[in-house]
Amino acid sequence: MNLIVAAKIAWAVGVVSWWLIRRPFERKVKRERVVDARDRVREFVLLSISTLGLGITPLVWAVTKALNFANYPYSPVQFALGVLVFLFSLWLFRRTHKDLGKNWSVTLEIKDTHKLITEGVYRYVRHPMYTAFFLWALAQLILIPNWIAGPAGVIGFGTLFLFRIGREEQMMLDTFGDEYRAYSARTARLIPGVF
To answer: Can you tell me where the transmembrane regions are (predicted)?
Structure first.
């Protein structure tokens, strides 16, 4: 099998796996009453930018020849590394959803029964789901040998992260106060002991 075709298949399997992981959690949280939802229009725009980078642009690369002009030489090592990073991102993505349970949401929301989760992967970082998405973006960068579709995930999700993280942390402070301050003091945002 051609290595580029293998990369396209690996990317597609990763995206479908992401959806399969998230789907059952989406169903569970729909029943939860939201008591605080912030910046709905802004959230829609940011999620659209992230989807453009992590989904639409690489999909265009995978199913058309429109971006072939930006392809570059590709190696089996690059393919293997991209797959490994994607697998780790999927594991972390699932673990994060499992640890959050009904406290999870796509947008900035606080549920009626919302709790501050500090166990599981949340013991080490405050935003492991963002870490999982950054790992997906990194996997895409490594896995897709194209100067446009490869980095599109880092740019798309990076934009969402940059314009959302401060507002999310403020919402958590508004909701949990000193408990969140203490939690923030002992955990990193994305990478344990680093950032």
So the answer is: 6-23, 44-63, 75-93, 133-163
Could you state, in order of their start, the residue ranges of all structural domains in the chain? 3-186
pLDDT in tens, 3-55: 999 999 999 999 999 999 999 888 777 776 767 777 789 999 999 999 999 99
State residue 164's pLDDT score: 93
3-186: CATH topology: Four Helix Bundle (Hemerythrin (Met), subunit A) (1.20.120)
HEC states along the chain?
Answer: CCHHHHHHHHHHHHHHHHHHHHHHHHHHHCCCCEEEECCHHHHHHHHHHHHHHHHHHHHHHHHCCCCHHHECCCCHHHHHHHHHHHHHHHHHHHHHHHHHHHHCCCCCEEECCCCCCCCHHHHCECCHHHHHHHHHHHHHHHHCCECCHHHHHHHHHHHHHHHHHHHHHHHHHHHHCHHHHHHHHHCECCCCCCC
Using one digit for the tens of pLDDT, what is the confidence trace for 43-99?
Answer: 999 999 999 999 999 999 999 999 999 999 999 999 999 999 999 999 999 999 999
Give the pair of three-digit tokens for residue 7: 């990369």
pLDDT surpasses 70 at 1: no
Whether the Cβ atoms of residue 172 and residue 180 lie closer than 8 Å to each other: yes
